[in-house]
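Q: Could you write out the predicted structure for this multi-component system? I'm mainly interested in how the pieces pack against one another.
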Amino acid sequence: MSEEIVLSELSLEDLYELMKEDLYDGLAEEITQEVHEALGRGQMPYEVLTYGLVAGMEIVGNDFRDGILFVPEVLMAAKAMKAGMAILRPLLAETGAEKIGSMVIGTVKGDIHDIGKNLVTMMMEGAGFEVFDLGINNSVDSYLNAIEQHKPDILGMSALLTTTMPYMKVVIDTLKEKGIRKDLIVLVGGAPLNEAFAEAIEADAYCRDAAVAVDTAKKFMRIRKSVNA
Ligand code: B1M
């Protein structure tokens, strides 16, 4: 953000444009101020997340793919995104909703991408789910231990690399071998996945984004409750 920009004088559209630019430039402090500014104008946390942070990260992703940005710049952008998310997280979780289910979630082995997973965690918590976040680089054993410990309704897995997404099948096959696959609703997500992949590995559903993850989780919880009633 250049010094002469006065945030309060920007239109909402320009504020979101600036947020995207500053995210691209990895300016965490500016992102923090802009998120506060947007919230101060009555924007909903999910709107700020979607139109500012996620939209900005999409541009970063495209330029990373096209060789315009490199890992250090993307890391700076990720840091700025996390600074914005840190402000939004408590607000998204603040609905006071009664707990409607529980989920263990983690990024699969070999994969260190966690921004999308963190977003899903935030949104699920906000929707009233209890979430146990295992972080990144999770082996089958890590998922199994967490399932045994927390006995969740849902297992969520995230993968951002075409090389790591097949690991989801390894986890699901192990759940089957152990006879516990049917005890869990298995939801998967991440940019390289699609519905056909989820079906092929026998997950219950592919979730395109965090909002879809919440809707899908709620839908499966309703089915689960009606079956157990
Ligand atoms: Co990485 N990276 N990266 N990266 N990176 C991608 C994924 C890539 C597509 C970039 C590109 O080429 N365009 C590409 C993968 C190509 C491929 O596999 N075909 C790639 C690569 C190649 C790599 C490295 C190999 C680069 C290198 O080292 N040469 C390396 C891999 C390291 C590893 O994991 N072993 C690497 C590293 C990194 C950084 C560390 C620099 C950084 C990660 C920082 C972090 O996460 N803490 C990074 C980033 C930031 C990206 C991009 C630019 C952005 C990802 C992101 O955060 N998106 C990404 C490009 C892209 O995806 N367009 C890219 C924003 C986020 C909100 O969206 O994660 O899709 P997303 O999550 C969404 C949905 O997918 C869904 O909901 C989320 C919220 O709406 N969702 C779920 C996700 N998980 C879910 C789980 C669910 C439900 C829904 O469970 C129920």
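A: Regarding packing and overall arrangement: The CA atoms of residues 207 and 216 lie 7 Å apart.
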